[in-house]
Structure formats: structure tokens, C-alpha cells
Amino acid sequence: MKFLIAVLSLASVVNAQWPLTIVDVLEKVGNETTLISLAKQAGLYNKLNSLGPLTVFAPTDTAFERLPKDVMNELQSNKTLLKEVLEAHMVTGKIEILMFLNDKLIPTMGGTNIRINVYDVSPIAITLTANGAGIVNPDCHAIAGFAQIIDTVMYPLPNGTIITEITNNANMSTLATAVSKAGLIATLSASNGNFTLFAPTNEAFSKLPAGVLNGLLKNVTALTNVLTYHVLSDVYNNVGLYYSRELRTVQGKNVTIKASSRESIMVNNASVLKELEKTNGVLQVVDTVLIPPNMHPELVHDKMDTNLPVSSRG
Prior knowledge:
Elements: H1 2-11, H2 22-29, H3 33-41, H4 45-48, E1 54-59, H5 61-65, H6 69-77, H7 79-87, E2 90-92, E3 104-107, E4 113-122, E5 125-130, E6 133-141, E7 145-150, H8 162-168, H9 173-181, H10 185-189, E8 195-200, H11 202-206, H12 212-218, H13 220-228, E9 231-232, H14 238-242, E10 246-248, E11 254-261, E12 264-267, E13 270-278, E14 281-286
Parallel strand pairs: 1-7, 8-14
Antiparallel strand pairs: 1-2, 3-4, 4-5, 5-6, 6-7, 8-9, 10-11, 11-12, 12-13, 13-14
Helix pairs in contact: 6-7
């Protein structure tokens, strides 16, 4: 694996005239005109064009084009926000991919962290992400530092924990109630956590058979069994899910991943609707509640004895 990374690192500089600044690198790469233009608007061009040391996680022009038009308009009209977002892509120092470890947090100029994830693509290849963005052209090297070219703008910026998102998101109020009943708030609030939560929306819970949700909320054993089946003990953004087939949950059973693209991912029978990067992991919002294998939710209803364990077949 180290040999592969070394080859990738050298590939962008072999037979090339050595660039001086990060701007020189971006101009040489040739698909970074939007970033350079926005850096000028935000008053950060001189920083990019300095002798550093500096590492920039640089979105391509296509990455900016994929932003919703209202988001792009807001960035261009709000210089303070634009500067905040761009500084969240910039790191003081020369950070090359040989230094990247899974779940490594890299502090940015903007005060937020960039989470690095390393996923196995095959026995001899890996793929790297930064806050869920794929690093598509690593270690573009200048005397001043590195440009790590990414395929997605890292926005919205990670803000708050998984629990912060659940408790403040009106579409996840049922999940918030369930997590509280199961006593999982402290775990999913851990600032040093590296979690993935497949987060069912309120509509997903409403699709459960009549009486099942009330029954689960009355039976902590059953509820915890279901909720921990939605949690992974590592961060799997859309790129990580795309390259996965089965993943072990905290509950102990596997979920099955089927992905035709990063935008079309199924977890068991649930569709991933949205990815939300948080400071202690990631929420993958899903449209269906995941039920552990061999558990029969229709037997967990609001009339069951709450002292009894959840009914299941072996």
C-alpha cells in the first residue's frame, strides 16, 4: 500500500517543471479556475500565491459546478462565508498523502478539521477522502506545499456532533426520541467518536407497521437492538459505502451495501437520501428503518410486556 501511495505521489511531478506556489500548481493542473477566482474574491489569493508552507484541498471547477445554484450565489455574495469555506480547505504546512491515516483529523486555517478516510478498493489499491470528498489527484507538489485535488466542495462545513444534528433536525425528531430512550446520547455525542449513523427520517419510522414504534419505545432491549443496527464504529461516507459490500454494525450483525454510484446507495432495503458530515462522524440519512436479521418487528407492538425481550426466531 505504501508503494502505491508513493507512486501516486510522484505521478503528478514526474517530467514536470517544478511549480513555485500553490497558484502555480492549480494553473498547471488546469481545472481550478473557479477556486482561484473565489480566492481573489475572499482576499485569499496572496495566501495561495505565497511561499507557504501550505496545503490546499482544492475542489475542481466541476466540483463547484455541482453546488446548488443558491449555495454558489450565497458564497459569491457573502465574502465572510466564502472566506470561512475556503479557509476550511486550507492547512498550514506541507501535508502529503504519506501522512494520511484513516480517521486522521487535520486542523485547517478556518478552525475546523478535515477528516481523512482511507478505503480499500482492492488488495493493491486504496482511495482517499477528505470530509467525504474524493481525493482525485493527490500530492500536486510545489515548493510552497501541496494541492490535494478533490472532487467535491467540502460544504456545509462539519458543525456539531451526530447528536447535535439529530436533536436540531425537525425531520429526525422520532430518531431523537428513540436515541434518548435507548440511552445512546452520550455515546453518539463523544467528541472523539468515529461513527456512521444510518439515520431514519420521521417518514421512515412512519412506514413501520402500526403499533411497532410505540412497542419499541416501551422496550429498551428491543429499541437498543434496532438502533445499534444503524451504527458503524467507523466513518463511511458515500465513497466508503460505494466500495463496500457488507459492513459490521455495533449491534453485531452486518448490513448489505448495494451502490451503482455515489449518488445511488442502498443499505439493506433503505435508500441513502443525504450525507451529513459531523465532527464525530457522519450521518447517512435513510428512508427506511433497518431491522436486524431474524428480528420480527410485527411482534413488537404497543401491547407487549415491556419486561420481555424482543421476540425473534433463531
